[in-house]
Amino acid sequence: MSGSNLSAELSFALDVASLGGRIAMHHYESSPRAERKNDGTWVTEADWAVEAQIRLHVARSWPGYNVLGEEEGLTAAGGGAPQPGAPTWVIDPIDGTHSFISEIPVWATLVALRIDDVNVLGVAHAPALGETYDAALGAGARMNGKPIHVDPIEDLGAAQVVSAGAEAFARAGLGSFYLELVGRAWRSRGFGDFWGHMLVARGAAHVMVETELHLWDVAALEPIVTEAGGKVTQLDGSPLSARGSCLTTCGTLHDEVAGLVRSHRPPQAGA
Length: 271
Hints:
Layout: H1 7-28, E1 34-36, E2 42-44, H2 45-61, E3 66-69, E4 73-76, E5 88-95, H3 97-101, E6 108-115, E7 118-126, E8 131-136, E9 141-143, E10 146-147, E11 160-163, H4 167-171, H5 175-184, E12 187-189, H6 193-201, E13 207-214, H7 215-218, H8 221-227, E14 231-233, E15 243-249, H9 254-264
Parallel strand pairs: 3-5, 11-12, 11-13
Antiparallel strand pairs: 1-2, 3-4, 5-6, 6-7, 7-8, 8-9, 9-10, 13-15, 14-15
């Protein structure tokens, strides 16, 4: 399905992401109540409020679709068991919840549409930054309505590498990979969550690495990066999965960075 056939869906995604951003900003400015979930990640009353409102709009506008949200999981648009094979709206109400709690403006409402296991469009709306990114397959990528493109450099020594930090790589047994990557790059910066991927998409950075993401973290980002000319896979170059690592690059450096990952991967148990 091409972008020309997704204009209604993309317009809807932009509208509900903007709605989510307005709800989130209201809470952001009033110190929302927060708590840790069982998996150790944070959730706030704003996460629940944003997802609930977007789900309501999906139920009204796309009743034959499914919804996958970080807080409420996978359901049919109107609730209940998901419909087999139906297109799925994927929602991360606040990507970067810890930044949101800490009043760091690097957070966003992410909305994607997934058809036949392909992420066909995505919106990342970051109201505290004043930035909105969107794309649909075959229709290019934009930031605040203006086309964006990766910076297709070919020398890792000239690249800016971004990540959420070194700690996750050490925990995953990939600390040596991370040190070699940033050591070979021009410089590195800690721009985590959605924003690192968007910096690559708009040509401000060249490599973004993360050890673990869920589908709702990356579904909206993949079409934006790819439509801007970049590439998104797991760290070793394998296809994205519902829960796994993520390597986003300007494209020209992708194979080199994925090769570094494979060379540093810890041996498998029993090998």
